[in-house]
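Whether sequence alone determines local backbone shape is best considered at the level of individual chains. The sequence in question and its structure tokens are set out directly beneath this paragraph.

***
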Amino acid sequence: MKRYLLCVLAVLTACILLAACKKSGTEISEPTSESAAVVETPSPTPTLPPYEANVLTGEPKGDDYPEGQRITAVMVNNIVAARPQRGLSKAQILFEIKVEGGITRFMPVFNDYNDIGEIGPVRSGRDQFFQLILPWQALYIHEGQSVVMQQYALDYEYGLLNNNDGANGYRDYGRVNWAGNSYNNGTLALEHTMYTSSENIAQYIQDNNVDMNRTYNSTFFNFVDYRQENPVRDLTTSLDSNYSTKYGPVVTDGEYVEITHSQSYKTRFIYDSSSNTYKMQQNYSDGQWRNTEDEANGNVQLSFPNVIVLYTDIHTYPGHEAKDLQYVEYSWGGVGYYCYGGKCEMIYWQKGTPLEALRLYYLTDNGQCSDTPLEINIGKSYVAVVDNDFTVDFVAKSLDGVDLSAYGIATTETQYVEDEAEAGETLGMSTDDLTNAARGSGDAATSTETSSTSSYNSASSTASTPQPTEAPASEAVSQAPAAEAPASEAPASQAPAEQAPASEATTTDDGGIQIG
């Protein structure tokens, strides 16, 4: 009887379980070919090749790239009487900064000294240029140097990398300048006749056993990664393109860019959409604008995809007033502009100690310095470091309505005594002590109280003013990009130094900006 009851119970349990399985309404059926198909695993994202970019342009290294060679910089005269120059068109970066007497000087920088060709007129070295290449340990070529520059070379033990004879330069007494003047006919000064060449530089390196070996672990700027599918940063769609403070947009028109370096020296750029470059011109002593040309390269006009303008305090070194030797404030950073593709954006820049590299940053949506490194498009760059006093004269706008044939201001040069250091001459103090004295003697000491205006196409913004950084030399060396490391690393991003509270900005009557 018990066995009979157990059997009945088992049958009832089976019926209940069968009813439960069908409760959801799902019919049990043979699997279809679709449901039996194997789900394909997504293909892995392709691995990018190592980042191996040209240190000065961000372009991929070609077969002829001088791997493991330190970069080379040359000081080139830009007083009007020295124009046109030779060799500038082959530079990967061209710096222009004010020196004595209100004139400017050039420092072209090259990947490979073998590609320079003939260059000049070679002129004397100045520390405001040297400090920009010191972190990169470049070969620095010039004819003569200021006593401050000489002290920098001593303090930083630059040795044979600081060449003071124009890399065994030679005189071209018969060269004729733009106005038809030459040394041979008694109308051109001797200092406008010194030139050198790739061959002479190579001979200097060989004769003196100069160590030209250098491996760079990052690029000069934070370039757009050439490995991207479309390695171009369009400023109109950039991350800051929608930023518009109450003072105006961060990104605006920039087909016409004009930079004032002093009371009479100016540089301007006209955007050429067919080549996506800015064509360079400068004003002359007759008031005309003329193309900046390279007479050693078929009188080609200089052109650059990237134009960068950085504003800071520039004034005379204390104790060097008779020679008007200029001090450039690199410790605090400041506001600048980056122009590409017919557009300009307001940016922030920093450097810090002499051993720290130049760094560029985006602004935030309220006009402050962000911690996001600015991306520079691949290609050659023109970089101007300009006195804050002339921020008011910066122009970036559309070409519409611009009369390119109109005369500008005629160049003039203030009289001064050339500062050329004697062999063995020193300052009697370190460059750190001189910098500390100079920092408190100019506008930088009260930079948050000074004001400047800029005709930035009716755009405006505020920017913070960082305090000086006093990092010890050993710490600064670790931050410099010239450390020996594999060149396959991607562009390094560096956080900005600590900032002071931002200064207020107001809109001027002409629609420009005033920071102060």
Observations:
- The first strand starts at residue 72 and ends at 74.
- The helical segments are 2-21, 127-133, 147-155, 198-208, 431-439, 473-479.
- The chain is about 10% helix and 25% strand.
- The two ends are 106 Å apart (CA to CA).
